[in-house]
Design goal:
Layout (H helix, E strand, L loop, with lengths): L6 H60 L1 E3 L9 H12 L3 H13 L5 E2 L3 H9 L4 E7 L4 E4 L14 E7 L2 E12 L2 E9 L7 H31 L1 H11 L19 H54 L8 H26 L2 H5 L4 E4 H18 L3 E6 L3 E4 L1 H18 L5 E9 L2 E8 L30 H11 L4 E5 L6 E6 L4
Length: 506
């Protein structure tokens, strides 16, 4: 299997790919903005340099005009070309003759005497090959300078600028009418170092290309750096995946990077909670099996006795079904049924299970009336006065769980209260908090035992009444599912027990 087929690498790809994309975006976006700002600044710098060049050309153009110190001494008609022109005019001339004569006249134009000023000389010589000049007459005929400069005819005495390309070089050209010693002439200066005209090429070589190379290097570096930085996280992921489902031991916090330690600590807390819950489930199963063993063994013994009696009848013996055995069998069946119901209620009262269901508005007064009617016959059979003191009260909760809570409290009071005693079911609002309470005038529970009776399958030593030690544990589990808990206090008369639940303010 190749490295590309490694399941760990495949599983890590979405996480690393997402971080890489985010980091690349966060890093390359500022780079791109810097490139744009650098390009804009470069253009502004080129514009400033070009403006300075325009100012320099505007300063040198009058100096070039002042460099004309005198006109030529020969008149145009004193030249040989002029004499040939006159003779040709006297005897007639052809078109070819006229063309030749125009060329000769152009070459034979009087050229002014030029003595260049030092600043103009310095300008023309410091960038040889990238500068040029021209002096022309006002009708556009060039008298001195570079022939490649096109004639320009300014209509005013203000300088005029143009840009032109010659030999692959972009020139900035100024043309201006000036008064010279040879009369009014047109002077031109050309500068091929115009930064604004060449900024596109320079920005590509000095700004864009280096930054693009830097961005490419940064992308490769970020990808490598992310993979290396996430290696401890990938190792942590692999360590968790390779664990056995029963291995809930904490992870080593110090072996992980500082940024990952909060995640590891959260995982350790989760492992501890799951481990505690699993341990509670194991204890619950062990306790339930232990508690079920006794009634099932008694039930089995009674069934065996009935089996022996049935075999005796088959052999012709007299039919004898003792009442005591029948009552024991009924008692064992009732106790087993009650224990099974309580175990089911305890499982349903689990806070995690209750939290997954939506709460509703519960009328506590109606709930008390319904539970009271359900236990009246049992109270009469035990010769117990079962009363109701219900005031209007409502709370948010799970009605089926609150019904189970109140049933267990009433059943627990009836079971452990002696005959000819009283049990009162109460509900109402106390200090703005709805409450449920069951109060009796029985023997009560010692303060040292009140915390332990909320544990599953715990019974106060010396208790003679039948029970499994689950009634109060179930009620407390339901109370915790409603973000509260049972309160065990002495009864209002000083004798007996009052078990109450205070709910959150509605």
């Amino acid at each position: 299997m190749t490295a590309a087929d490694d399941p760990a690498d495949t599983a890590a790809t979405p996480l690393m790919g997402g971080l890489q994309r985010r980091l690349l975006l966060l890093l390359l976006f500022p780079f791109g903005m810097l490139v744009l700002v650098g390009t804009w600044l470069h253009y502004q710098s080129a514009g400033s340099a070009a403006l300075q060049q325009d100012l320099l050309l505007a300063k040198l153009a009058p100096m070039l005009g002042d460099s004309v110190v005198a006109a030529a001494s020969d008149a145009p008609d004193a030249t040989p070309a002029g004499r040939r022109g006159r003779s040709a005019a006297a005897g007639g001339e052809t078109a070819a003759d006229r063309a030749n004569r125009a060329a000769e006249q152009a070459l034979a134009l009087p050229r002014p005497v030029l003595l260049l000023a030092p600043p103009v000389v310095e300008f023309l010589t410091q960038t040889a090959g990238a500068t040029g000049y021209s002096i022309s007459s006002i009708d556009g005929q060039q008298l001195l300078g570079d022939a490649w400069l096109p004639p320009m005819m300014p209509v005013t005495r203000e300088p005029e600028f143009i840009s032109l390309t010659q030999g692959g070089v972009t020139y900035r050209v100024i043309a201006q009418r000036v008064y010279t010693a040879a009369g009014e002439l047109i002077v031109q200066l050309a500068d091929g170092s115009d930064a604004r005209q060449q900024w596109a090429g320079t920005v590509l070589s000095s700004v864009l290309l280096p930054n693009l190379v830097l961005m490419a290097v940064a992308a490769v570096w970020v990808r490598w750096a992310v993979r290396r930085a996430l290696r401890p996280l990938m190792e942590l992921k692999t360590a968790v995946e390779q664990r056995s489902p029963r291995d809930l031991s904490p992870l080593a916090v110090q072996a992980t990077p500082t940024e990952v330690q909060p995640l590891v600590q959260s995982l350790n807390r989760l492992f501890a909670m799951v481990n505690a819950q699993a341990e509670a489930q194991r204890r619950f199963v062990a306790d339930a099996a232990h508690q079920l063993r006794t009634p099932i063994a008694g039930l089995q013994a009674q069934v065996e006795a009935w089996g022996q009696a049935a075999r005796h009848i088959e052999k012709g013996g007299a039919m004898r079904l003792p009442v005591e055995q029948v009552m024991r069998l009924r008692h064992a069946c009732r106790r087993t049924s009650q224990l099974a119901n309580q175990l089911l209620a305890l499982s349903r009262a689990d806070a995690t299970t209750a939290a997954s269901q939506a709460m509703q508005r519960v009328d506590l007064r109606a709930l008390c009336e319904a539970v009271l009617a359900q236990h009246l016959d049992e109270a009469l059979a035990r010769h117990i006065d079962l009363g109701l003191d219900a005031q209007p009260a409502q709370t948010d909760g799970h009605e089926w769980l609150l019904r189970e809570l109140l049933i267990n409290l009433v059943d627990n009071a009836l079971r452990y209260t002696p005959a000819h005693s009283s049990v009162t079911v109460r509900c109402g609002v106390k200090d703005g908090q709805p409450f449920l309470a069951v109060e009796d005038n029985g023997p009560g529970i010692e303060p040292a035992e009140r915390a332990r009776v909320l544990q599953r399958f715990y019974r106060v030593p010396g208790t003679q009444a039948e029970g499994n030690g689950l009634g109060l544990a179930i009620a407390d589990e339901i109370a915790r599912a409603h973000a509260t808990q049972l309160q065990l206090e002495p009864a209002s008369g000083g004798q007996g027990l009052r078990v109450s639940v205070l709910f959150k303010r509605g």
